[in-house]
Amino acid sequence: xxxxxxxxxxxxxxxxxxxxxxxxxxxxLREQMERAKAKDKDVGPSVSTELKREEDSEEKIVFAMxxxxxxxxxxxxxxxxxxxxDSSKAAGTVKVKKVEKKRSAIEELMAENxxxxxxxxxxxxxxxxxxxxxxxxxxxGKDFFKSKGVVEEVFDTYGAKVKLIxxxxxxxxxxxxxxxxxxxxxxxxxxxxxAYEGSIAIxxxxxxxxxxxxxxxxxxxxKGRSVDxxxxxxxxxxxxxx
Length: 242
Fold this sequence. Notes:
Blueprint: H1 2-43, H2 86-91, H3 105-119, E1 132-135, E2 148-155, E3 159-164, E4 170-174, E5 178-180, E6 188-191, E7 200-207, E8 212-217, E9 226-231, E10 235-237
Antiparallel strand pairs: 1-2, 1-5, 2-3, 3-4, 6-7, 6-10, 7-8, 8-9
């Protein structure tokens, strides 16, 4: 019986130790839980919030397609008048009025005479008093062929009384038996036909290739005027005593 009593005592002691361990464990757990609750009170209760995206802060991703660049227009260079200045641009376009010089009465007469002469047609009869001519017909004999004379008188438009220079003889000849004489450069001639018919001029130049001459008129209202390309047959040497 003593033995059984001891056994009972041992069992009771063991059961008491197991309870103490459980209580100790529970106590430790409670302490941990209380410390945790105390910590949560200090921090404050956690509030769960709903995540929202503001429309204004929304980022939009835009894919921009490359635009085709327009073709560059060709820029034409602007030619600037060398005489145009900035001041003239500011003042606007300045119109230059051409001032015509008033012509004198003599100049107007010359202009009218010139216009009338240009309209004048060439005439068939070219004989004129005071010119030197050459005989070109052989019908009068070798003594008169290529002889030179001075026209003293013109009759019936195509006939002339000619005085030979060397012999002094006088002949009546038709202009078809005569030709004009071209003097040396610097001598006087009479213009027989064309715009300046009847004018006395100085022979300046012979244009052999063109069968013409260049003259300067030395008498009359056209004095000082130069005339080019006058045909040989439209002038003849003017007789002088020198």
